[in-house]
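Form P-L/3: holo structure prediction, ligand nicotinamide-adenine-dinucleotide.
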Amino acid sequence: QRVGFALVGLGHLTLEEILPGFAHCKKSKPVALVSGDPDKMSKVARQYGIKPENCYSYETYDKLKDNPEVEVIYIVLPNSMHAEYTVRGAKAGKHILCEKPMANSAKECRQMIEACEKAGKKLMIAYRIQYEPLNRQVFELVRNKTYGKVKWIEAVNTQNQVHDDQWRHKKTLAGGGALPDIGLYCLNTTRYLLGEEPTEVSASIYSTPGDARFAEVEENVSFTLRFPSGIIANCATGYGTYNAKRYRVYAEAGWIDMDPGFAYHGLKMTRAHAPNGHEVKEQPTVPDKSQFALEMDHMAECVRENKTPYTPGEEGLQDQLIMEAIYKSARDNRPVKLPAVSKLDAFR
Ligand code: NAD
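OUTPUT (holo model):
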């Protein structure tokens, strides 16, 4: 029996990636929708075979508790709404899959974790990269030290964000600019690959003066993470330049490049090493799978088999704490120390 999902928010991500992604799922199915736009919702419901009585508004959202077909609520709303809808969803007795960034503050992240714990429900953050096969291959190469010890990582995630008066440019709704939206991929993927937590961050921020897109949220953030083993990650994110969604891992005897590494589709790995003194470059391929399908099926499996998700709420909280340190470092113009944390690997 597939696990039934309710999708909350019918914006770009839900319509263009998540709902089509269910076609590639083996364990999950869409059974309910929540939206503030009844006309759009009834069209989408017809398209995906969702019953009219399983369509809810934000006001009737809590009634999901009386719908046994819904086991997981997938929250795909502006960032500032993640905490409220997670807490209400957990109170309605449902497991929660929440889009990234988890929330706009560590305080909200803690409330979300507590609410799900109290309700005895699972909380997973939708870190799709960690369910994607090529990125998982990089993980294996790094963790198995295939090319020796990793010394350095560089990661970049940029896009020229269109100014269309959307929530991403408003601080109260988005929490920040490029950093929580796309810079988070550099941070989260680096932590995922290394299995270590940074102990120090230093950062600088720049926003083009007079550009209305950056009146409330930042444009560019460059940040460096220092890890206990000595590894340094140089990361950069921005809302004002053409798409770049790539990272490269440098190890003693080789490097692994993912370009693009953070896109939805068409990811490409190049790895180089010199086993007999001559450089060999390889480009392994895997079937292009919907990362959203893989991620949703993981959540479904956790529900059916009563397992902790691979990217639980604690992952989102840790990223939020590091992002807060990144902002502090840029504000104070000095490195910021982070508390030593090692527990996150216990989830892996
Ligand atoms: P979007 O603007 O396209 O959709 C947001 C939806 O929320 C819309 O349907 C809108 O009507 C609804 N909404 C409800 N209340 C709102 C309010 N007060 N203000 C604005 N919109 C409101 O956004 P999106 O790109 O679909 O992003 C939604 C979430 O998904 C965000 O948290 C974002 O970070 C995340 N996201 C994740 C990925 C990924 O790759 N995992 C990609 C894109 C977006």
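COMMENT: The longest strand covers residues 240-251.
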